[in-house]
Design goal:
Elements lengths: L1 H7 L4 E6 L2 H4 L3 H12 L10 E4 L2 E6 L4 H16 L8 H8 L3 H9 L8 E5 L6 E5 L3 H10 L1 H42 L10 H6 L5
Antiparallel strand pairs: 1-3, 2-3, 4-5
Length: 210
Amino acid sequence: MSKSKKDTEPPALVKTWSLPAAATFGSTVRAKGILLEIRARLPMAARKALDYTVANLTLSMSEGDEAEFRCACAIVSQALQAIEDLPVIPREIEDVLSISTTERHRWLEDGRLQSAGTRTVKLRGRARQITFHVFDPQLLKDLLDQGTVDEWREHDKAAAAENRRRAAFKAKLTRSLKKGKGTRDASADGEDDTPPLAGWDEFGLDGLLR
């Protein structure tokens, strides 16, 4: 009974930090990414005590954990000092820019979306690791301010239309060549009704075809 009562009691030690919009870009996905990044810096026992609620990070611990609470507060406060410079991971940039995974891969491959390096992490509960590109937060700010993503999409749309036009022309040309070859083969099997060129016999007698 006493244990159940203890579980329902509100935590006695609570501290809240506001996450700046310059760090989250108004994205919940980015905010939760920041939460996970800071949690990873905390001692294992204190990680679940830090949570995200409505643009804020909140650390909550029970009475009697004062030492752990002070240590965790110091870590969180220090991490937040440079939080606006925290590299942006793929799922965050997709949410912030409202782009698809296909667009991210295409623009990264052709150099329009510049990588700030790579990061390797081990999947939880698995032996294998994954490596992915990360991005500079300043790049996101510039792309948002300049409306560059819309320009890239218009460029891609025009390029796709041009590629379709070229493919259609190539297919039409291929069909024409096949049709022309069939006509020549049919003429070779039959008699050639084409009249000889004037002077052709004399041209051959001169030995110029030898």
